[in-house]
Specification:
The chain has helices at residues 28-35, 37-67, 83-94, 103-128, 136-153, 155-166, 174-190, 194-217, 221-224, 229-260, 268-279, 288-313, and strands spanning 16-17, 23-24, 72-74, 77-79. The protein is mainly alpha-helical and 316 residues long. The protein has a domain at 192-285. A two-stranded antiparallel sheet has the order 1-2. A two-stranded antiparallel ribbon has the order 3-4. The longest helix is centred in the last third of the chain and has 32 residues, at 229-260.
Length: 316
């Protein structure tokens, strides 16, 4: 629901009366949150993104390595790497902590990114939909616009995140990585892969939001407001994530290639041709399983936590 639907006498929005008839001033933090609903949405989105980002980082790492490893000699065998073999190799070579390689840029990107996404979404809803339930097309449009804004702003962090996860670049820190990329590759290096990133994230978010809202509408209202609210939101999120991940997987593969090999490809079309010539159609879907697991579980958890925090903060 939207800010306009918040009850008029919500305790967060009004001053309380003392027993003597005087007025107890609303705590500054509550008054601030009440006056700035976009801040509420940003905080709820950021908190929801933090836990899911940390928890599912290994899946993102395995996905990046899988997309960048067409055929590798490992453990005495030569052939296409599987998700399990990459996972095992990381643990053997880099130990358990290696599964969380790239954690800093992931959090730096995902936490404010999710916060920006949810606050943009709340702004669009409150200003253009006036409290009504969005249609499927409106959901796609809202998700597309909200994710495009956050994706474009945070593309330099996305580049660093991908390179950290690949294990190909020996950066000391995220700041040094950004400085090195800007110094050696310029603005083009800082924004490489922007087009496929937007083709991946914006449609994913739009499709995800459409599937999520449409699935929720199939659930009886009495169940939505029951003690089973969180499991229901989580299930709707998983369903939406699976469907949206499959559609946007090719763009994720192209994004990874462009960000890892900025000098090898002149543009999006050259990456498309390269993947097709070297791997065929199946090449566009490399890493789909770990990405599907991560994006689905992460999005489902983020929305579940967001829904609960929104109620606590007075957004619903």
């Amino acid at each position: 629901m939207l800010q306009s639907e918040i009850q008029m006498y919500d305790i967060d929005d009004v001053d309380q009366q003392s027993p003597m008839g005087g007025q107890i001033m609303t705590p500054p933090k509550k008054e601030f949150l009440a006056n700035y609903p976009l801040v509420k949405a940003f905080l709820a989105g950021s908190f929801s993104g933090t836990f899911s980002t940390v928890l599912f980082q290994p899946l993102d790492l395995v996905k990046t390595r899988l997309q960048n490893s067409p055929a590798t000699f490992i453990n005495g065998r030569h052939g296409t790497l599987s998700m399990l073999s990459i996972f095992t190799n990381i643990v053997q070579q880099e130990h358990i902590k290696g599964l969380w390689r790239g954690m800093t840029p992931s959090i730096t990107r995902c936490v404010p990114g999710i916060g920006l996404y949810f606050s943009s979404l709340d702004y669009i809803k409150s200003h253009y939909l006036e409290g009504k339930t969005p249609t499927a097309l409106e959901s796609v449009t809202m998700g597309f616009c909200a994710r495009s804004m956050s994706g474009a702003i945070l593309i330099p962090i996305t580049v660093v995140k991908t390179r950290f996860e690949s294990g190909m670049y020996d950066y000391n820190s995220m700041v040094s990585a950004l400085k090195h990329i800007y110094r050696t590759e310029g603005l083009r290096g800082m924004t490489c892969g922007l087009v496929p990133t937007l083709f991946r994230d914006a449609p994913f978010s739009g499709l995800y939001l459409m599937f999520y809202t449409q699935t929720k509408q199939l659930i009886p209202k009495e169940l939505i407001n029951s003690p089973y609210t969180s499991p229901i939101h989580f299930t709707c999120g998983i369903t939406a994530g699976i469907l949206a991940s499959v559609v946007t997987q090719p763009a994720d593969v192209l994004k990874t290639k462009m960000q890892l090999y900025p000098t090898k490809f002149k543009g999006l079309w050259s990456v498309i041709v390269y993947v097709h010539n070297n791997h065929g159609v199946q090449g566009y879907f490399k890493g789909m399983v770990p990405r599907m697991l991560r994006r689905t579980l992460m999005a489902a958890m983020a929305w579940t936590v967001y829904e609960q925090l929104s109620k606590k903060l007075g957004l619903k």
